[in-house]
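P.,

For your records, the input lines for the assembly:
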Amino acid sequence: MLYIVGLGLGDERDITLRGLEAIRRCTKVYMEAYTSLLSFGLASDGLSTLEKLYGKSITVSDREAVEEKADDMLLEARDSDVAFLVVGDPFGATTHTDLVVRAKKLGVDVKVVHNASVMNAIGVCGLQLYRYGETVSIPFFTDTWRPDSFYEKIKRNRSLRLHTLCLLDIRVKEPTLESLCRGKKVYEPPRFMTINTAIEQLLEVEQNNNESVCGEDTPCVGLARVGCEDQKIVAGSMKQLLDVEFGPPLHCLVIIGDTHPLEEEMLEFYRVGRDDRAWGRIPPACRRGRGRCGQRR
Amino acid sequence: MLYIVGLGLGDERDITLRGLEAIRRCTKVYMEAYTSLLSFGLASDGLSTLEKLYGKSITVSDREAVEEKADDMLLEARDSDVAFLVVGDPFGATTHTDLVVRAKKLGVDVKVVHNASVMNAIGVCGLQLYRYGETVSIPFFTDTWRPDSFYEKIKRNRSLRLHTLCLLDIRVKEPTLESLCRGKKVYEPPRFMTINTAIEQLLEVEQNNNESVCGEDTPCVGLARVGCEDQKIVAGSMKQLLDVEFGPPLHCLVIIGDTHPLEEEMLEFYRVGRDDRAWGRIPPACRRGRGRCGQRR
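Structure tokens returned:
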């Protein structure tokens, strides 16, 4: 049996009892690192905290390991119980759907343990989930590659007066172009896109296309570290959010469509300039800094 | 402090460690019943199972209690730690956003513990979450009230080739019209919409509007009890799904847009007529029937 276990968004305490039971039943535990490295702070003691909680040692799998060596893991899962841990919910990333398909083809039973992901936890900003249009991804622009397919999607959502969730680029263990040419991979340092960079890129694309999809006055919500103890949520115009320091990853951005009065009331708590410590305040009992978020505070 | 704790979708084991810690810290524990009655099977021993796990007694709050007496709970939360438990994620329902707004206005600190909800767990069917358009709700038709605003939304999603998640009506503790006229409330028995009824209503609306938004051949996925041990997922045309018995609540329906090859591969596992026991098979260790889903198997 392969258990694909969602770990949620915050720290080690965001696992469910069902997930914890599954892991403790397994003979081997893998964790995907490529979408979660930044959340987990694996460079610090995040991994050992998890191992202690689970009573198991964890093998961290980067993208290459999962995509190239998945079959080894799946063959193990045919004969014994194996857990594959994923930050957020197992179906937040296409890669994990692919893993399920491969497992089924090999005749390996799969069991999924769900958890919160940004796709539903984004509801915390007060904008109702059923008022969102298509989700978009904003990739890092480079000197030679400035893809802007997100612009058309945001345009459609805005014409329907819907909110748009923008997921921002994460680059973990990306080989440098130079090293690929030489045939021996050397990796770039991990990078994540900030809300500020996302807005800069959006404004640049708007300037190039000039279709009034967004601009400095477009109302948005910036969310950093959703679901973590130190999450930060600020609502304001694109121009206002450009100057906000959101802190460590991960960041995402919502471009606001038409709002209902209740949505407006919630957004008011997050308005630029308000004391955001008043909302989502951390109670003393939780301040022990045990989590992967706490480590970055 | 008011802790709004998501319980996830399956049974009592779907709570997170963070949620469990919060509840155990609280002097009073409330649980909303109006969106969760059917999931929890409160008529059976579901409630006592939760109380035993939490080591706390739980006050079940129906819609009226939450909407009319919320201030009492919030005043308690100003002086002590109070938990409010919600099936799924706290922000799946507008009512809970309203609760947060009321809490903030009274100066009550709020802390949210996220969990899986249908809005992200729907990813289990293999259709990628970022390929969904606006979510729609399909209400029960009555002899005199046949609202079809969902039709326009589905039409838009389909013209954009996006998937549509249809949330199906739940009627818990609804006063009868007759009793409202008499001034003394008598409640209808709880009802939930099946996938079959949803499709019948969709086909009726299509027949009336005749805009080729959907029809008997439209590919869909029906999902019952997502995240529960006995979840059932079947992919097929509307006509095919009309004949499928999905069993106990809750049900939802996805109308499929354009698909990628990976999405097709996943859907293949759920195709009508396949032995769906092969997928999501329940391992013996989980068959103890402790959960609210188990009770209905």
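Two observations worth noting. Chain A touches chain B through 65 residues (CB under 8 Å). Chain A has eleven helices and twelve strands.

Regards
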